[in-house]
Design goal:
About 5% of the residues lie in helices and about 50% in strands. The protein is mainly β and about 1450 residues long.
Length: about 1450
Amino acid sequence: MIEREEIIMKEWAQREKERKRLHIYVMLIAMLTISVFAIRWGMKSEAANLSDIYVTTGGDPFTHVVDGGSVTITNDETLTLNGTENSDVIKWELTDLNQKIVSLENATSKSCNIKISGTGKTPIKATITRGSETKEITCYVEVKWGIDTSNQKVFYRVKDSDKEKVAVLSKDDSSSKYPSSTKISIGLKNANDLTWTSENENVVCIGSTSGTGTQVTGSEAVLNAVGAGKTTIKVDDGTNTATLDVYVLPKIKGIDGQSATNDSYTVDTGAIMETNAHFTSEAEGIKARMQWAIYQYDENRGDYTLLKTSFDEDKASDLIQLKSVSEESRDKLKLIGKAGSYNIKFYPNGLYTEEEIKASKTGTDIGNIKAVTVSVKINSNLGDRNVNLNKGDKLNLAEALNVSLKDLTTKYKVSTYLKNDTSKEVTTPYIKYDRTNQVIEALQETENNFIWVNVVEISSQKTVASFDVRIVDNLLLNMSNISLPVGGEMQLFVVTGSYDGELTWKSSDEKYVTVDQNGLIKGIAKTDKDVTITVTQQMSDGSVKVATCKVKVDETIQNLKLSEIETKIVEGGTKTITASFTPDRNEAPLKWMSSDTSVFTINVSSDNKSVVVTGVKAGTAILTALNQDNYVAAVCKIDVVSEIESLTLPTDNMTVSLKQEYVRLVAECKPETAANNTLIWKSENPALATVDNEGLVTLKAPGRVRIYVSPSYDPTHSIYAECWLTIKQEAESIALNSHELTVDVGETKGLGYSLAPEGSTTNVTWSSLDETIATINAKGEVTGCKAGKTYIIATTSEGKSDICSVSVTQAATNIEFLEQEITIANGSTYVIPYVLTPEDATSPISWKSMNPEIVSVGENGVITAHKVGETYVMATIADGYSATCKITVTEKSTGITLSKSEIVLENGHSEKIGYVLAPEGATTVLTWKSLDSSIATVDNTGTVVGKKAGSTYIVVTSEDGYSETCKVTVTQQASGISLEMTELTLGVGDSYTVGVTFTPEDSTERLINWSSQNSKIASVNSDGTITGVSVGNTVIFARIASGEMAQIMVAVNNKLGNMTLDKSKKTITVGATFTLKPIFTPSNASNKKVTWSSSNKSVATVSTSGKVKGIKGGTSMITCVSKDGGYTASCLVSVVEKVTSVKLNHTSYKLTVGKNIQLKATVSSNGATNKIVKWTSSNKKVATVNSRGKVTAKKLGTCTIKAKATDGSGEYATCKIRVIRRATRLSISQSYIKLYEGNSRLLKAKVRPSNASNKRVKWSSSNSSIAVVSSKGKVTGVAEGTAKISVKTTDGSNIKATCVVKVEKRVPVTSMTVSASDIVMVKGTSQNASVVISPSDTTDRIRYASDNRSVATVTSKGRIKAIRPGTATIIVSASSGQETSINVTVVGLNKTSITMQQYDSDDLWVEEISDTVKWTSSDPAIARVTNGKVVGRKVGRCTITATVRGVKLYCSVRITKIK
């Protein structure tokens, strides 16, 4: 079979080579043909039309941006024009020059580089010029705060249509194109103070120069692949947040210990795959990390076909299964399958959906990220073997050979013969052969013969497998000789092939040995001679079967202990373990055992009191010393470790902030396979920082501290790694040593500061609010630039700040008065104007009056006149520069008189107003002011200028407080005239005064000359009032002085006297229309124009012609208003609407007899006028309904309640009423149960009465952290404590029952030791599996299982029953993972009775054992036996006994007279 599979694979590989070669030939021919045509027709690559040019980003063909389109980026990017020619002239430009988001590089090439500097959206225009044609494409680029995904070796789109990219990493795969780690950052280069987190550190551990773990801070982070799966990386800066999905590809690291060759394996079924998945959470399974699809090679198609995926793994498959090994080995998968070649494709969980994976029927790639493919060839189980069957047993040939039923049926031929006669096939009476399912059933004993099953490969006609099948029925005891200690126990049991009799057990001396009726013997006292235990079986045919066992009882040792309970040794290392006991013996009656010799082996000392343990490979196993007298054991847990050769940390120096609180350090052990990877972390100064056993550092105080790590087991004390942490105390506040500072221009002074709390370290940034006045450098040195005042701000990296006021001074080099002579009135004050050189000089000025009795001078040059006279005032600056000013003091004025009290001006003209002061010779300063400068202005000489038509006043005021006024009137001549309308309609006798507008608007001219072209039709007076005289048309004129004129056309008509409508009321349906007509009085009225309106347009509308349309149910008033006279007429319109739908508040409802429910009907429409519904019941015997929708249940059954609209629309709604019998009582199977953590118990709920319509119930737990319950009542203990499980009816009766659940902690098994690992049993007998379990109070569930139930079965209590001759292994396992086994050999004679004539012979043999057999005859005179050959002698009965391994087997012989 294996050879044939290899041939098939070679043929397939050869066909693949030929197919690829043919593909290359076809491609070469195609290329040659294209080249020929290119030469023949001068073919050349043509560029796209200008209209076809589009933009892509970063060379990514999946972005296609046309003119006006947009693209979103998070990092520096490249925009590329597609479809251009080399000769095209290209120009990229930013159309928004004020934006500060991006800048452009290579702006004249096909590809333009975008450099981002901020977030937002901005347009970028590309202009392409080709000859005389020009094409412009504007692309809107939106820059978002996000992760830079420009590295094409790491970031991919899973599918072409995806907008977002993901990161792809590998783990434990050196050949992968994907890296195992990568550095990531935010696209904006100035992004700082970022916090990076990984959603699942079992997939990706995130790190930086400040550590690794689930969270780090810094401007960038390093992603380190930990195990297969998916995680999400999140980064934020306190304001913005961005995420990135990261996938780590699965990797099969090996299968059953063998490493892969090009990811290809050849294995047996049941092989264990080791994956690169990593787990710490108990709640997760391997499917949370990866998914897979399994394909089988199809020889007919030469391709692979999808068999199943991990999404339907729970569904059984007759070809292959891949499932988790156990909760403890969640990173491993067990491969169970029939012989054949398979491809298994692995994907990180979440990379593709179930539908996408299943759609790949032949294993073709789904998207841009390829699956990890493992090729597996599963071996068949061909060969020769012996099989023993009991009557009624079945042998499944396909399962035995590990081939599929299809392959066994189509590729092999199966024949059955008697072993001693292969001339013809045989079935009955021995077997029944089901060829369809390839199953052989045992029907009758084969006695001295076998059924030979021959399997021939059809293609080669060679025998590839055969079975020697023996069908038996026998009896034997499991032991024939036993040594027991005083107080020791041992289980005897009997095996029989056709058990039909009762067993009776008996001891020959119960003072020394007792036996119960289950075969359990016990040593009572030390024996001087053997005690015989006898079991008797009375068969239904009258025969009696007997088996015996010799028992010896002796004293044994007590207080067995080992020198160590738990210890560690390295691979290749040794350690001696010694046993102690009382009383001491020269040789200990101990059996030393290693629970796993692949972990460690033992070498037992000559006195059996100690062993030398040698470590083989890393792992944990149990050393057991078993007292063979009483099967009491002592155990020692031994951890074999592979030594760590080196330890490294990500960095040996790190600076962190105390505010960060925690830093995680991750140590890398080499080699990675080191089993002793338990590490000890220490801090050199716990006052500064502490570290736990996981490398998590807790920051305590600022300073420098060393964190170091070493293996927990390091005899040489030479392996360690260290990292120096510099812990900085972040400043909470900053205080400047000065808050006011004065410097000269060009002078530099330093500012100092202090931080709180004391010992804080931080970066301080200095800034000046006005650097034109003063600047400051990074050292805090302030330099004056120009005179003025500004502020210096000191800011810490934590955002704390303090401020200092800075005044900059400038020395003056000269002073100059702007007025050399000044005249002021006595008693007044005046400020002498001056200038300093330079202008911003701040030097102090000294002021001095030469005669203070005339004038005094104060600060800032303020002079005060004291008496009439003359003097000088001098101003002097620090460097000796000075200036002088002559001051003349005159008398004060006592009054002022203007030359005019009123003037009139034309707009734009001017006139000066004169004045006289009193007394004569008085001086004063006059202030001129216009009360409305928009009409007239005045200067300081009294000259008035007209600005616009109007009146205002000019006020003049002396400094002595005297004032006078002059009224000013400004006139404005009109330049144009316009009337308020150009046409006017009047009735005979009606009048109208026309409004007039002059140009400009502020014109003061108002004189108009009005005239009528025909005063017999219409007349006009001097006020512009027009009066209709008779029917007709004429023109009215209006003229002003400038000659400008305006006119109005006047039509005089007959006057309307009244108006009505042809209808005052009307009723219509929705959608219907009708037209209203107005009736005028008199009928010959000149103006019959009207306007129409609806009071409720949602009900009815009306057009300009009076056409009314119904919109929805309701009423609306339609109103008509005449243009002439404003007469009004109305019509009340009623719109009738039918119901559009009816809905009920219930579509179905359950009631018990006599109960009722109120149904409510909701009628839907835009405004139905009739919303009444009619209620009916389809079966009034079941339920009735009244006119208001109240339903009353009458008897069990179902009916329909209908609510139908009565407006003729036909709309209705229904509710299905089911009258049921509710539950009256609810009980629970147990009111109190006790569980261990993780154990489950099924509770059952019983609803009464039994014919209740709804027996469904709902389960709940009062505390799901202690116990949970499924929807079917399965209760599972979660944690220690007490919870209440409740069950409640769901039919509305709300009946409840409860069960109190007490959950206790588990006590796991630490060791399991069997008293005898190999036992022999006789078919049909039973015995208990003797297992020593420690501790004795364990809460583990002990499971017993047989790997060959056709040979031996075992009950849940450990009772083993021998079924038929053969071998089986009884596996004993604890729920916590401990496991041991017992090898059971079931034996029996091929015959249990023989009837033959004198001198005939027959053969006996012991089945399933090849040991030496002792044969005896109870009466050799009747029958003699030699090596199992029985020869009849004389007529009579005797018993042939076969003794093997102390077990006696019996065959009853009857000799008849020779014929």
